Amino acid sequence: MHWDEEIQDYVYAERPNKTLIKRELDHIQAVLKRMIALPQGYFDQVPMSDDLRENLVLARRIERAALQRHIRYMSGRTENEDLDLMILTMDRLAHPAVMATEKLHRAEEWRDKLIAGDNNLITELVGLLPGCDVQYLRQLIRNANAEAKKSKPPKSARLLYKYLHDLDEGE
């Protein structure tokens, strides 16, 4: 507390919310515990600093109470780490089936929008998916629309879906 001449009053220092700090530390510790439990093949793919990687390798060899102390120690040293990226990477590694399903749904959504006539999506896909052949894409869209009008089986719509899915897989 000190006297501020401008406002003619005492100014009190604001301290951070202790509960919020504890929640953040608990979250960081939970992420670190997840990382310690990862299989070695997945562990190597998670982006992190060399210092944190060495500490996590050490933590795998430590037992109970010492492990808890070491996790608390590591949680204080994660200021420069991108925890959100680590969590995202761990989720992708832990749930490959979910990621594959998301890709399938994304390809279906793109196909449906393209057949419905969303031309802006074509330019977006060209930038998003390397190797996208615009001419072939437009041909598949035209053929799919023609088949839909003539009530024929959706051969071109299936080809369009397969083409988009293969491009997304190659990404």
TrEMBL record:
Record carries keyword Lipoprotein: no
Pfam families found in the cross-reference section: DarP
The keyword rRNA-binding appears for this protein: yes
Gene Ontology BP, a term: ribosome biogenesis
Domain of life of the organism encoding this protein: Bacteria
InterPro entries: DarP (IPR006839), DarP_sf (IPR023153)
Alphabetized UniProt keyword annotations: Cytoplasm, Ribosome biogenesis, RNA-binding, rRNA-binding
One cellular component (GO) term of this entry: cytosol
CDD domains in the cross-refs: YjgA-like
TM spans (from-to): none
GO molecular function terms noted in the UniProt entry: rRNA binding
PANTHER family: UPF0307 PROTEIN YJGA
Protein name: DUF615 domain-containing protein
